[in-house]
Amino acid sequence: MCGGRRDAVAGRDAGGVRLGRRGERTTESNMGLIESLKFIWLFLPNLMPREFYELGVMAVAFLAVVIFITLMVLFMVWFERKVVGHMQVRRGPLHTGGFHGWAQSIADTLKLFLKEDIVPRGVDRPVYILAPLIVFMSTVVAYIVIPFSKSLVARDINMGVLFVFAVSSVTTIGIFMAGWGSNNKYSLLGAMRVAAQIVSYEVPLLLSVLGVFMLAQTLSLSGIVEAQKHVWYVFLQPVGFVIYVIAGIGEVNRLPFDIPEAESELVAGFHTEYSGLRFAFFFLSEYANMFVMSSMATVLFLGGWHGPVLPGFVWFLLKAFSFMFLMVWVRATYPRLRVDQMMAFCWKILLPLAFLNLLVTGLVMAAV
Amino acid sequence: MNWSELLSAPLAFKMLAAAAVVFAIGAVALKNVFHCALSLAAMFFALSGVFVLLDADFLAVVQILVYVGAIVVLMIFAIVLTERITSASVRQTNYLVIPGVLLCIALLAGLVSVIRASSWPSLESGPQQDTIKIIGRQLLSTHVEAFEVASVLLLAALVGAVFLGKEITRK
C-alpha cells in the first residue's frame, strides 16, 4: 500500500526527489537551484501572456492527474487481486516481479498496449471510437476539484461537489455510446442496465450528500473539509454515510451492483466488443471512478486532510484508500443482485431513508 | 447592443457559440436519431461553457447535471428501446418542415428585435463569489410561488408516470 502512495508523491515533485539523490556535498548548490526554481516559478506569470500561463498551468495539472490516476490504478488492481485472493483463501498474483507479484498489473498493462486494435465491421465507427474517450475524460475532469490537501488542489470552485456529480453523470452517455455503437445485443443490454442503474442510484446519492451541505453551509469541497476540523460528518450523519456507501458502489457499477457487466449473463456488458487500448480506457476509468467516489467520501464524511502528525495529503490518501479497501471487501463478501432486486432496493428503501435522513437533519438543526 | 460589440466578444465565447449552433443544427439534421441525441448533448456542453463565461457557474453545472446527465440519457433510453428508429436511418422530416422553418425564423426575428430594443443595464459589480446562496435565497423568497407551482407540477407528473406505468386491471 505504501508503494503506491510514495510513487504518487514522487510523481508530484519529481524534481525535488532527483535533486535529493545527489548527496550531501552538493547540498548548498542544490539549495541554490531550488531557490532559483522557486524564483522562476513565482515570476513565470510575468514572463508570458496570461493566456499562455493559464494554459500551461492547466496542462501541468492535467498531466499530474493522469500520472496519478495511472499509478493509482496500477496499484489498486494489484491490491484488489491480492485482497480478494486472501479473502477467498487464495494467494492472488505471486510470480511477476518477485515480491508478491507486485509487477503483475504493469505486465498486464503492457500486454494491453501491445494488443491489436480491433474495430469490428458492424460498429458505428465514430460513436464506437469516441465512447472510451468520453468515459475516461468525464472521469479525469472530476479530479480537478478534489482537494488532496489544503493547497494541493488544481481548482477550488465554490460548488465542487455538484461539479463532481455533474461530470460523472456524463459517464452514462459514454457507456451508452459504447453499448449502442458496438452493434451487439449484449453490449446494448449492458448499456441499458447501466443507464437505469446510474440514473436511479444518483438520486439517493445526491440526497445523502445534501445532509452534509446543510451542516457545512457550503458546497465548496475545501469549505466542507474545513468545517470538519473538530468532528467528522460521519459521526453527525451516520445514516447519510451508509446511504452514500451503498449508492456510491451502485454508481460505480461494482459488485454487488455490477449487473451491467454480469459475466454470467452478458459476456462483459457494454465493453464486450472492445479490446486492447480502448478496453484499457474503460478499465482505467472504472478504477479512477472508484477513487473519485472514495475521495468524495473522504471529503464529505471522513474529514478530508485533517489528522494528527502526518501531512495533509498522506491523511487524505490513507482515508481514500481505506474506503477503496471497504469497496474491495464488499466485493469479496456479497453475491451479485438481480436487476429487479437492485431497483426495488434503490427506490423502496434507499430513497425513503435518504428523505428521512434529510428531514431529521433539518429538524435537529432547527431545534439546536 | 450592436454588431461591433459581438465582434469584440472573447474568442472563447465565439468558439462556444459556433459549436452550440453547429451541434444544434446537427441535433435536427443528422440522419441517425442516436447521433442527433449525442449532438444535442454536445450542444448542452457548449451552452454550459457559455454560462461559465458569464460567471453563472451554478447554472453551468446544473445544465450538465440535469440536461446531459438526465434528460439526454432518458432520450437515448427511449431511442434505444424503440427498435424501428435505431435499426435503419429513417427520414427525419415530414411535410411540416417548411412551416417549422418559418416559425423558427419568426421566433428568431422576434428575439433579435426584443434584444436589440432593450437597453441592457450594465452592472459593474464583478463576479459573484457565492452565487448558490443568492439563488437559494431568491428561490425561497422572491420566487417562492413559482417554486411551489413547479413542485406541484412535478408531483402531478410523478403521479401520472406511476399511473401509466402500472398495469390497470379491469374487473
Provide a brief overview of the structure:
The complex is a heterodimer of chains A (368) and B (171). Chain A has 368 residues and is mainly α.
Describe the structure.
The complex is a heterodimer of chains A (about 375) and B (about 170). Chain A has one domain (about 95-365). Chain A is about 70% helix and about 0% strand. Chain A is built from 16 helices and no strands. The radius of gyration of chain A is 22 Å and the shape is globular. With about 170 residues, chain B is mainly α. Chain B has 8 helices and no strands. In chain B, helix 2 packs antiparallel against helix 3 (about 35-55) and helix 3 (about 35-55) runs antiparallel to helix 4. Chain B is globular. The interface between A and B is medium-sized, with 25 and 26 residues.
Helix content of chain A: over 70%
What is the distance, rounded to the nearest whole angstrom, between the alpha carbons of the first and last residues of chain B? 66 Å
The CATH class of the largest domain in chain B: Mainly Alpha
What is the residue-mean pLDDT of chain A, rounded to a whole number? Answer: 80
Given the C-alpha coordinates, what overall shape of chain B results?
globular
Strand content of chain B: under 5%
Low-confidence stretches of chain B: none
How many domains in all of chain A?
A: 1
Q: What's the multimeric state?
A: heterodimer
Please state the structural category of chain A.
Answer: mainly alpha
Estimated radius of gyration of chain A: 22 Å
**Which stretches of chain A of 5+ consecutive residues score pLDDT under 50?**
1-28
| CATH level 4 superfamily of the largest domain in chain B | NADH-ubiquinone/plastoquinone oxidoreductase chain 6, subunit NuoJ
SSE pattern of chain A, N- to C-terminal: HHHHHHHHHHHHHHHH
Q: Write down how many β-strands of chain B occur, each being a DSSP E stretch of 2 or more residues.
A: 0
| N- to C-terminal distance of chain A | 42 Å
Described by the principal axes of the CA atoms, the overall outline of chain A is globular
Number of helices of chain A: 16
Main sheet overview of chain A:
none
Helix content of chain B: over 70%
